[in-house]
Specification:
mainly alpha, 5 helical Cullin repeat like
Length: 132
């Protein structure tokens, strides 16, 4: 039999590690997420690690920066649509064959839906965390 003194163990509670570079880490994570969003929209998602991006987005939200993440994602998508998609559509307006314009519009819309699905897969953690 064990003595009662040997069966008692002292449990030490340790303070969490200080995160002095918290803001820098969040900014770096956002920069990587922003780059990934642009890569997704440019149909170059095969080089991305979605698990890593998911983790970064989740950590940004856990550190109470979900507004920064939301606004950054919105701005990045708006910038891409204004700089890349809008000029393509405007240039096709002068085409006398309306079918070409509609085909382009349909293709761009399909590409946009695929991009939004991939981006939402990365950000699903933030959606679940902020609605709790």
């Amino acid at each position: 039999m064990l003595s009662s003194s040997s069966s008692r163990r002292t449990t030490r509670i340790r303070a969490p590690k200080a995160q002095s570079n918290n803001k820098q880490q969040i900014e770096q994570s956002w920069s990587e997420i922003q780059t990934a969003i642009v890569e997704i929209q440019n149909k170059n998602a095969s080089v991305l690690s979605f698990e890593k991006l998911y983790r970064m987005a989740y950590n940004i939200v856990l550190k109470k920066h979900s507004d920064m993440l939301y606004n950054g994602v919105r701005t990045t998508i708006e910038d891409f649509l204004s700089a890349d998609i809008k000029p393509k559509l405007v240039s096709m307006l002068s085409d006398p064959d309306e079918k070409n314009y509609l085909k382009l519009l349909n293709q761009l819309w399909d590409d946009h839906l695929i991009s939004m699905k991939m981006i939402s897969d990365v950000l699903i953690s933030s959606r679940m965390t902020t609605t709790d």
